[in-house]
Amino acid sequence: MTGFWRWVAALASAAAVAMAGSAAQAAEAQPATDTAIAQGTFSRGDPIPDWAHPVAIPPTKRSNPVVTRLADTQFRVGKVNSFYSNRAIQVNASAALARIGQYQLYYVPQYQKLRLHRVHLLRGDAILDRTASSNVSFLQREMDLERGVYSGGVTVALLIDDVRIGDTLHITYSIEGSNPVFGDTYSENASWDQEDPIELRSVTLSHPIERDIRWQMQGDFRSGRQEPDLTLSKTHRQLRWQETGIDGIDSEPGTPDNYFAARALQFSEYTDWSAVARWAEPLFANGGALPKEMRDLVEKLKQLPGEEARALAALRWVQEEIRYFAVTLGESSHRPNPPHVVVERRFGDCKDKTFLLLTLLRELGIEAHPLLVSQRYPKLPEKLLPTPLAFDHVMVRAKVDGQYRYLDGTRLGQRGRLTRRSAVATGMAGLAVAPGVASLASIAAPEARELNTQTLNEHFTLPSFTGDAKLETSITWNGNDAENIRIAAAQFTPEQLSKFALSNYERIYPGIELAGVPTWQDDTEGNRITLNTSYSVPKLATEYGLEWGMRFFPANLRGAVHVPPQLKRKFPLVALSSSYQAKYELTVDWPQSVAMAHDPSSKRVSNEFFSLDVTRSFRGNRARVGVTFAALTEVVQPEQLPRLMEEVKAIDQAVRGYVVVEKSAIKNDGLFGLGRKTLQENLRKRLQDTVERIGKTIADGHLSGEDLAEAHCSRAEALADLGTPADGQKDAERAVQLAPQFGRARQCRGNLYFNQGEFAKAELDFSKALALGANPFETFYRRGHARYYQGRTAEAAEDFAKAAAATDSSRRVYADLWRIWSLQRLGQVVPPDLDRQARAEPQGEWPRPALAMLVGALSPEQMLAEVEKKTGDERELNMTEALFYLGQQRLNQGQPTLARTAFEQVRQKGITMYIEHVAAGFELSAKTMPAPDKK
To answer: What are phi and psi for residue 590, nearest 5 degrees?
Structure first.
């Protein structure tokens, strides 16, 4: 994780602390301190409980740094639940001596008693008793205090003298008591595998015979499932699981949160999830009388129009007026405080805030219930036996305007409508505490893709090749990212904001400086936030032989795919965020002397992991690159990693990271303008150079397969742009021969067929290219042209609609243009959504004025006036398109003579590589076109 992405992570981390509540202001960890404990809650030297059975310590021949010779856990269910732990840990390396020299136990004195029975060091045949001599400290180190959580748990730290390499620590202890909030229903778990090897793992469960306690062994990596030995007495049922010679299991970063790498035993007396819901229901009942402040608030909220407005106002009040802080002593771990107590204290945790929000919503007449979820492991509960221990968080499920919405009172920074707020994760397993609910529900996050979209726009302006450039950027975050950054941004100092704004660019563009103060633009209605920044970039362009070039890379792609440090893994990897989408738009305005003309071209990388679309165009002195990345999955299996890495390399190849200007495309006016060349001459010279350069590359023989086919395609299309498509046809045929399953080769040959007027053949190739995974926008768009000139206008309009739906970049406008006049040619009404889009920006960036003209929002004269506002080559190029669109409009208006004039002017412009130039020739040769004016 580098550059910009690291800073975003840092922002998110800072915001997460802020979300936990203003009571958690301290960023530094609280030190462990000695604390007093209630008398009778701890003792040492007590005899082993009479219900516990002895288990012998096996020998070991392993030389691992740490070997657990015995891991024995025994559970006793009764009026007072207890468990007994009997462990023997051998250390074989000096670096690991602390594992047995400083040993820690944990319990909650408020409802538990810890009995330390034995602390022995086994050294050869000697047994060294350290039970009484070990130094014992009681430390109240609240692990979650930084997040505003106080649990009251105590760490018992044992400092054991004189531990040596080869020693085995044999320690036995028991803990009596359990959290009273769970009542008499039993639920527990026991780990099985661990990082260190285990010579003998033993787990025993003993419970009254009349109680039905189910069990299951979880584990996704190891297939071994131990079956218990059953022993029955008159009163108790005893189950004992044992396994010998268990190898250690190393953890791997990035393992999915619902994947059990290590096996574990789970016990539960809950018959089903409805039993868990029934356990939770009384916790959120009987809130008591509302204090006056809440009664006044309810009356105020009732005046708001509509359920959503009232629900949003209640949610925001709970989020912002009640700070987050949790006191989870005893039953407070799960039982919320009454609303009046929370309002009086002005703090509470998730359950307190949920109870308060539930009360407000119900007073407002909105159906609402608690929703139990796991924030840390959102999908995990689905794999467990029913148990309250599956959940670590509670929020509200409210029925607002007939739709279930999920409201989290602990979130800060949320804005916008309910559909724009990210309270749940896609696929999160939740349990609604409501009548009739008998199972978990897999929750779908509304607008998940949109809420996880990050958009970055970069606009470079280069007045000269050797001077400084100007860079203007805007980056937009949505949903959860917007909420986190909104919080963090409010806490930024000016220096921190400047550092953040520069962090992504300093390594790419050395010497870059801010050219003003970065500004935030907060769209609270859409729950999105944008950072706008201006920079000065020294010597952006670099000379490379026959080219000038500049580097770029979409910062919002960094970290989009998590690459593990090692490709060889045993466990699955969370490699992507399944709903993440990155959009990137690059605009480069080169010096006015540049004259290029590249129609938009596309490249797609599509696989089971993600899709990537890259578009490029170059018109006059303006170059554009558009990138859209969409994650399609989240978890990657170990055997898929090599392929994933190859696909990640394909991202770099598709994006390339350079924008270049060929020196042949730079107009040289010469002395007194005597060396001036026209735009058409420059474009033709560039195409000739392209044909020559590609020819040399092919002749070198270094390319093969799809790369060689791509080279033939590029030369074929350059020859077609020169006006000699018959010559290019040979290259197109060769490309298909070299790579018959390469969609781009089929698309290329279709382009050549089209240029020669063989529309049926072109359509077949475009259809085949689609089946082979070619870029959908480019291929639907070109197949639409082929169908249009076969007279199949309705099918063409459908293809243009599909092309528009396949992209959200500026290319969409071109598909919309063809679709609109195709529908008009058929006598059909333009769909309302398309009509709205066409009218949205009549004076916007070209070709939006042409779109507006087609639907009557601008007159033809007004459209042409917009083009005339341009200068230099950009005006010439845009006018070529404008005249073609005007010709189509004239045809639809029944003015073929005026249409012919427009199409003739298109051809006279001589921009041969434009589809408009080629199509104008087809229009002029149509039988329905009137004869040219003989004047």
So the answer is: -75, 170
How do 113-123 and 126-129 pair as beta strands? antiparallel
From 188, 177, 156, select the one nearest 73 (Cα to Cα).
188
Inter-CA distances, 363 with 297, 316, 344, 351, 360, Å: 10, 16, 19, 18, 5
Residue 406 DSSP class: E
Let me know: does 241 contact 226? Beta carbons within 8 Å.
yes
Query: What are 861's two structure tokens?
Result: 């004269």
Summarised one tens digit per residue, pLDDT across range 799-838 is 999 999 988 767 789 999 999 999 999 999 999 999 999 9
Q: Is 662 helix (H, G, I), strand (E, B) or coil?
A: strand
Question: Is the whole model's pTM more than 0.90, yes or no?
Answer: no
Token pair, residue 621, equals 């002195």
C-alpha to C-alpha distance for 852 and 843, rounded to whole angstroms: 8
Res 329: pLDDT? 54
Query: In the chain, how long is the greatest CA-to-CA distance?
Result: 119
Which residues, at least 6 apart from 545, have a Cβ–Cβ distance to it below 8 Å? none
Tell me how many degrees the CA angle 577-579-583 measures, rounded to the nearest 5. Answer: 100
CA atoms of 529 and 671, how far apart (whole Å): 51
Give the CB-side neighbour count of residue 851, counting CA atoms within 13 A: 25
Dist CA 347 CA 554 (whole Å)? 42
Other Cβ atoms less than 10 A from the Cβ of 932: the count is 11
To which H or E segment does residue 340 belong? helix 339-345
The 10s digit of each residue's pLDDT in 211-248 is 999 999 999 998 777 789 999 999 999 999 999 999 99
Structure tokens at 400: 């607002």
Give the range among 12-16, 646-650, 720-724 with minimum mean pLDDT: 12-16
Confirm if 504 and 431 have CB atoms less than 8 A apart. no
Enumerate long-range contacts of 854-862, CB under 8 Å, 24 or more apart: 854/817, 854/820, 854/821, 854/824, 854/885, 854/888, 854/889, 855/820, 855/830, 860/886, 860/889
* Percent above pLDDT 90 for the chain: 67
Helix (H/G/I), strand (E/B), else coil: 141: coil
